[in-house]
Amino acid sequence: MLVLTRKVNESIKIGDEIEITILSVSGEQIKIGIDAPKHVEIHRKEVYLDIQNENNQASQTSVDLLKQLNINFKNAR
């Protein structure tokens, strides 16, 4: 993990397209601004993990449904 120290209004660049700017610091909270192209998805980590979990559950449901449909189709013959 890279650890950097930045002050308010200072930025960090990630590649050519992403810039993270420190907007304010208040106690233990830090506000950051992220400037990135629209095709780059940006989520808080807990939201990202929830999305991944939902996607995994949806894909598993699809596999289970296809298996059941296949069984039903074979039995209908």
From TrEMBL:
Q: What are the UniProt keywords, alphabetically?
A: Bacterial flagellum biogenesis, Cytoplasm, Repressor, RNA-binding, Translation regulation
**GO biological process: one example:** negative regulation of translational initiation
Which superkingdom?
Bacteria
Q: Which GO terms describe its cellular component?
A: cytosol
Key word Repressor present: yes
Cross-referenced Pfam families, in alphabetical order?
A: CsrA
Subcellular location per the Swiss-Prot or TrEMBL entry = Cytoplasm
Q: Record's family?
A: Belongs to the CsrA/RsmA family.
Q: Which NCBIfam families match?
A: csrA (TIGR00202), PRK01712.1 (NF002469)
Its quaternary organisation is: Homodimer; the beta-strands of each monomer intercalate to form a hydrophobic core, while the alpha-helices form wings that extend away from the core.
Q: Entry's HAMAP family?
A: CsrA
Q: PANTHER family from the xrefs?
A: CARBON STORAGE REGULATOR
Q: Any idea what job this protein has?
A: A translational regulator that binds mRNA to regulate translation initiation and/or mRNA stability. Usually binds in the 5'-UTR at or near the Shine-Dalgarno sequence preventing ribosome-binding, thus repressing translation. Its main target seems to be the major flagellin gene, while its function is anatagonized by FliW.
Protein name, as recorded:
Translational regulator CsrA
Upper classification of the source organism reads: Bacteria, Bacillati, Bacillota, Bacilli, Bacillales
Q: Please state the gene responsible for encoding this protein.
A: csrA
